[in-house]
């Protein structure tokens, strides 16, 4: 059974860049049947998919965050990471990493089966 | 990509059935049979209940079922139980390696 764990700062200043890492255990991050996602949830609000990455480094993003988000992968460390630039208070959220199976398809379609516990990031000076 | 539309809340008595709708467009819900449903308790990560409109992962009770008609998908919870009280989210593939979540629905067991 796969386990995912987010790590990163809990507090970031406005206009700065957020860097979060997700460590995957109990399964290979290099497996070809999974994408690896970042999803966030603002306090009291709904879920928002940020983007996902394949083991080969191909990454895809939601249009609204595409200009500010970068997802990378380090298979040697079994980790994938999220960078989000030009932070504002609106980026305050619980950030989750999750595994997204392809289920035999070319793309992952948003049926995330394993999730990290989430990490709260507050953007404030 | 706009969030899919869900009712803010639904409620039912123990043993009853409740249905949650998830309305999108022909570009997402209506255009792909890739709708998922998640259950989320306060302070916890979401849990996958349904994928590919109707499929249940191993371990999910068959009280949870999914369907779709046109641009609207639905999750039905039969035999409502106290621990079904949670938030529920749908998601849909939108094509071009992207997907979107619904606005979320709070289920209350009366």
Overall structural class of chain A, as computed from helix and strand content, comes to mainly beta
End-to-end Cα distance of chain B, whole Å, is 35 Å
Q: What is the CA-atom radius of gyration of chain A, in angstroms?
A: 14 Å
Number of helices of chain B: 0
How many strand elements of chain B?
9
Low-confidence stretches of chain A: none
Mean pLDDT of chain B: 97
Note the overall shape of chain B: globular
Q: Gyration radius of chain B, to the nearest Å?
A: 13 Å
- Give the distance, in angstroms, between the N- and C-terminal Cα atoms of chain A: 39 Å
Structural class of chain B: mainly beta
Helix content of chain A: under 10%
What proportion of the residues of chain B form beta strands (DSSP E)?
35-45%
The largest β sheet of chain A comes out as:
7 strands, mixed
**Average pLDDT taken over every residue of chain A:** 96
How many DSSP H or I helices of chain A?
Answer: 0
Topology pattern of chain B, helix = H, strand = E: EEEEEEEEE
Describe the largest sheet of chain B: 6 strands, mixed
Oligomer: heterodimer
Measured by DSSP, the beta-strand proportion of chain A falls in: over 45%
In short:
By secondary structure, chain A is mainly β. Helices cover 0% and strands 49% of the residues of chain A.
Could you describe the 3D structure shown?
The complex is a heterodimer of chains A (125) and B (110). With 125 residues, chain A is mainly beta. In chain A, 0% of the residues lie in helices and 49% in strands. Chain B has 110 residues and is mostly beta strands. Helix content of chain B is 0%, strand content 44%. Classes of the chains: A mainly beta (125), B mainly beta (110). Chain A binds chain B through residues 39, 46-49, 52, 60-64, 96, 98, 103, 107-113, 115-118, and chain B through 1, 3, 32, 34, 36, 38, 44-48, 51-52, 57, 89, 91-93, 96-104.
């Amino acid at each position: 059974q796969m386990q995912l764990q987010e790590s990163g700062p809990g507090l970031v200043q406005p206009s700065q860049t957020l860097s979060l890492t997700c460590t995957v255990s109990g399964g290979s991050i290099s497996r070809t049947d999974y994408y690896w996602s970042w999803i966030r949830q603002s306090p009291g609000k709904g879920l928002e998919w940020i983007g996902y990455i394949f083991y080969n480094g191909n990454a895809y993003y939601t249009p609204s965050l595409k200009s500010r988000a970068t997802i990378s992968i380090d298979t040697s460390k079994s980790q994938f990471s999220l960078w989000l630039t030009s932070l504002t208070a609106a980026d305050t959220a619980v950030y989750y990493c999750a595994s997204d199976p392809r289920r035999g398809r070319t793309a992952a379609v948003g049926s995330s089966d394993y999730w990290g516990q989430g990490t709260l990031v507050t953007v404030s000076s | 990509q706009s969030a899919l539309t869900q009712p803010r809340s639904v409620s039912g008595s123990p043993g009853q059935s409740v249905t949650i709708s998830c309305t999108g467009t022909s570009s997402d819900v209506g255009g792909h049979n890739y709708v998922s449903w998640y259950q989320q308790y306060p302070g916890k990560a979401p849990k996958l209940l349904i994928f590919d409109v109707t499929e249940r992962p191993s371990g999910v009770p068959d009280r949870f079922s999914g369907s779709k008609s046109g641009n609207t998908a639905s999750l039905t919870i039969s035999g409502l139980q106290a621990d079904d009280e949670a938030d529920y989210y749908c998601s849909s593939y939108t094509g071009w390696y992207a997907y979107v979540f619904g606005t979320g629905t709070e289920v209350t067991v009366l």
